[in-house]
Amino acid sequence: MSKTNLPSAVLALGATSAIAEATLRLFAARGARFYLVARNPDKLATVAADLKTRGASSVATHVMDLDDTAAHPAMLEAAAQNLDTIELALLAHGVLGDQEQAEKSYLAAEAILGTNFMAPVSLITWLANYFEAAHQGTLAVISSVAGDRGRKSNYVYGASKGALTIFLDGVRNRIDRAGVHVLTIKPGFVATPMTAHLPQGPLFAPPSKVAAGILSAIEKRKDVVYVPAFWAIIMLIIRMIPRRIFKKLNV
Amino acid sequence: MARSTPRPRFESWGRYPTFQAELKPLTWASDFPLRNPPSTPVLPVGAGRSYGDVCLLENGTLLHTRGMDRLLSFDADTGILRCEAGVTLAEILDFAVPRGFFLPVTPGTKYVTVGGAIANDIHGKNHHVAGTFGHHVQCFELVRSDGARILCSPSHNAEWFAATIGGMGLTGLITWAEVRLRPIVSRAIDYHGEKFVGIDEFLDLSRKADTEYTVAWIDCVATGKNFARGIFMQGDHSKEPGKLEKSKEPWLTFPIDLPAFALNRLSMAAFNTAYYHKQLPKVKTAKIDYEPFFYPLDSVLRWNRMYGKSGLLQFQNVIPHEGGREGMVEILKAITRSGLASFLAVIKFFGDVPSVGMMSFPQPGIMLALDFPIRPEVSFDLVERLAEITLEYGGRMYSAKDARMTAQQYQAFYPQWREFERYIDPAFDSAFWQRVTGRRPLGE
User: Fold this and answer.
1) Given this model, what pLDDT does residue B3 score?
2) Which single residue of A213, B128, B357, B424 could bond B121 by disulfide (Cβ 3.0 to 4.6 Å)?
3) Residue B324: how many other CB atoms lie within 10 Å
4) CB of B404 within 8 A of CB of B387?
């Protein structure tokens, strides 16, 4: 069913996240093979059944908490073995966290940074070396527009994603020359269970729209993609606001 | 971003009535029962494409099931698809058509969910041969607020199966269902359209029709020699192998809420005349795509904005064949007399297959569906009058399209409601159910 030379052996980390799921469906329709990793076994089995029904050639699942970095290498080796060659690794796990809690307690802030930054660093370190040695592969990582500038209302989450973006910039510069595609994905507001408690305005995009943007960025081997694309303009403006004004704003 | 701002009023497709309600998105079958159940009632809502208040609830929590949109299994030998309740019929078509399958029954829009299709036991242009959607449901899981998970099929927990099909979402939450799809070899429909004038010509064409799909558009504005003119449309899935690709996304969205005066008798009369003359010869046959045949309005997203912010009122009834002709003529006359116009009126014969749902709408007879712009002083009186005529002729009205039935009328249309009540989940309620059980007065 493959129309283009899109990757067909896909490792999904945080496979039950809404953005991951929507993206994986697009690959399933093209007959891809999957190795799915997530924490909740029931949700993981549901996603696996859906991808299989939609046309996946094979789906393997692996239940684990990705905060457990010590268990990463064994999981990644199992994935590489199962898929034969990992062609695409999609990192999609993350938490929004509770900003108010994180302002009061270092432990709450550390938990957000651990899940959103330290765990990806562990995964990306292994995957970067794997792809570099193989001289192929796509490493697609979900960061966030929140990482573009620190805001009063969610700077702990923003810092975790900003750090991830910078880390990926460096990794890209290292392994791009080995033929590895590193894609930093910056979604704006997405209507997902993670944001269900927030009031949803017109800026909220459905995961399917975000997924289409991710697929196209993988196909075009982009370095960074804002999804939906209009967020590139919004964030350009936000980054240009002088700090002396920005610090007075209630955003 | 503020942590909690009041939710917008949740609208059904008719945009009347509306209520403030908390919206709780459900993403996984395990999200229900809720971890912190509210003290006020809950009600599942899928795509919100029913017209009146059957998917609404005042001072309660709407369980929004659209996030439960997974396809769980498909057997290409039997055509049986198992999917979560929030999957829309459009999503099923996108999946099934390229594989050579089609919905067993489809309403006039593909943007309804499977859960909603079961809860309202929807029907389509093939009712006379295929029955309702419920006839093609193999089984489903019903989750009650006490955590009980009931597997329902015609042979297993059959009473829950019957109560939930057409049960308006009140018996619990449907998490997934198995639906038997039907094979097709092409997207194409072999179409046959024939103009008629007068109810007798319509009845004659309906009796003679031997196609799977039949429906007629009827002009509810014209009087005199043009009274009850229309176009009788029928079709079959083409038996000649053809294209089986997935549909394109509609690119047109109705951009604004039209002001209330935009749809008036004059503009509707003009529309009806133009529609009648769109087909020039008396008879026209063609091979057409299934999209315009089944879903002419789906090509414009949010077409309900045409009726403006005040919304539209739907009326759909069925009158038994015995007395059906007289009943329908009386109804059409009441409409033309009211000066209110409807421009999406359809009329059809329902078949004799008994519905599987305890509270299902279809019964053998002639079905009529109309929509009116809301002009409180005229449209409410008219719909009230149409309900009275329906009652007089032993017919009934369709809950999924109603916003105005009185408790007395409903209970006369559906005398089995007392029996049904025993299956309602104690934590569930709806604005519709409050109204037709006399617990909420009709609004103005």
Assistant:
1) 36
2) B357
3) 22
4) yes
Q: Is residue B281 part of a domain?
A: yes
Q: Which residue of A has its CA nearest to B80?
A: A53
Residue B123 lies in a domain: no
pLDDT value of residue A4: 57
* B2/A contact by beta carbon, under 8 A: yes
C-alpha to C-alpha distance for B423 and B438, rounded to whole angstroms: 19
Sequence-distant (6+) residues with CB within 8 A of A110 are: none
Smallest CA–CA distance from A153 into chain B, residue: B1
Residue B271 lies in a domain: yes
Looking up residue B293, the CATH number of its domain turns out to be 3.40.462.10
- The answer to whether the CB atoms of B71 and A50 lie below 8 A apart is yes
Is residue B128 in a domain?
Answer: no
Kindly determine whether residue A199 and residue B25, on different chains, have CB atoms separated by under 8 Å. Answer: no
- Give catalytic status of residue A157 as yes or no: yes
CA of A53 to nearest chain B CA: how many angstroms apart? Answer: 5
Domain total for chain B?
1
Model confidence over B341-384: pLDDT tens digits? 787 799 999 999 999 999 999 999 999 999 888 887 788 999 99
- Say which residues have a Cβ less than 8 Å from residue B249's Cβ, sequence separation at least 6: none
Q: How far, in Å, CA of B321 to CA of B393, rounded? A: 10
Query: pTM score > 0.90 for this model?
Result: yes
Is the CB of residue B97 less than 8 Å from the CB of residue B186?
A: no
**Chain B nearest C-alpha distance from A167 (Å):** 28
Handedness of CA A115, A118, A122, A125 (dihedral sign): positive
Go through the domains of chain A in sequence order and give each one's CATH number: 9-246 (3.40.50.720)
